[in-house]
Design a protein that fits this description.
- By secondary structure, this protein is an alpha/beta fold.
- The chain has a domain at about 35-145 and about 210-250: 3-Layer(aba) Sandwich (Rossmann fold).
- About 35% of the residues lie in helices and about 25% in strands.
- The chain is built from 7 helices and 11 strands.
- The chain has helices at about 5-35, 55-65, 85-90, 105-115, 125-130, 135-140, 235-250; strands at about 40-45, 70-75, 90-95, 120-125, 145, 150-160, 175-180, 180-185, 190-195, 210-215, 220-225.
- The radius of gyration is 23 Å and the shape is globular.
- The relative contact order is 0.14.
Length: about 270
């Protein structure tokens, strides 16, 4: 074999090896950029149109895909009847204010979280004011909307847990939207609260109310934030960050151990 031929083969091998290393490096970078690759989510939206479920879908479904999730999207609660689908999910995100759910749909949803360990996350009425007749559903969520005195009003959200990864590094912030007054499970791990004035309902003046929390229901993680009446709330970076972090936390139910979250602690007055 000639010297030129040997040099050509050597250079080709080096180029090939370099291409292989570059491809491997590119794959590693892609994997690092999508830390939740391989996870499967179900995004269910519908119900009362005033909470803009379609616009919520258009914010959070692309984001989930960017994070690496394989996302099934449904505008029907019948998705909860598909046992194979529900058993395969790591995460359910639900935006379905009010409405009614059948006994069978309800059972499929609860089983996925309680028995199969699927996480569930949501916000405002899409999770915290859905299926008002279903008390077991409310037991899962950890709270139920009952009022928003004054409607759209300015109020402050106070971060009360500065160590939890969902709220770490965030400061108190202001919003102009519905301030949810809720019936709350006292064992939620509360991450942020708000304080009511007496302006719109004098009997609740100075009441402290949880805004977002994490909890478990059976084997599954549950994350809820009362923020999000309309999508403009997510123009506030803190509100969007809390929702995204909480959603990702819920998605890890099947992938890491969940510590004891019974934490009935509220700020002293």
């Amino acid at each position: 074999m000639s010297l030129k031929r040997r040099e050509f083969i050597k250079k080709s091998a080096l180029v090939s090896a370099g291409a292989t290393l570059a491809a491997a490096s590119s794959t590693s970078v892609a994997a690092a950029e999508k830390p939740h690759a391989g996870k499967k989510a179900l995004f269910v939206y519908g119900g009362w149109a005033g909470h803009q479920p379609e616009k919520c879908r258009d914010i959070f479904v692309p984001w989930l895909k960017e994070e690496g999730f394989e996302v099934e999207v449904s505008d029907k609660l019948d998705a909860y009847l598909d046992a194979d689908l529900m058993g395969s999910r790591d995460l359910i995100v639900q935006v379905f204010t009010m409405s009614e759910i059948t006994k069978e749909q309800h059972a499929g949803l609860l089983k996925a979280v309680r028995e199969d360990g699927c996480g569930i996350a949501g916000w405002h009425g899409g999770l915290g004011d859905a299926f008002r007749q279903q008390t077991e559903y409310q037991f899962m969520v950890g709270g139920q909307w009952v009022a928003h005195p004054g409607g759209i009003i300015p109020y402050r959200v106070n971060i009360t847990d500065h160590e939890d990864p969902i709220t770490r590094g965030l400061k108190d912030f202001d919003l102009n939207t519905e301030q949810y007054y809720m019936h709350i499970d006292p064992n939620n791990k509360v991450l942020a609260t708000t304080r009511f004035s007496a302006e719109h309902a004098n009997w609740i003046g100075d009441a402290t109310m949880p805004v977002c929390w994490k909890r478990v229901y059976g084997k599954g993680r549950v994350f809820y934030s009362s923020l999000g009446h309309t999508v403009d709330v997510y123009d506030t970076p803190e509100a969007l960050t809390i929702q995204k972090r909480g959603t990702l936390w819920a998605s890890d139910s099947k992938h890491e151990e969940t510590p004891d979250l019974v934490s009935p602690v509220y700020p002293s007055r």
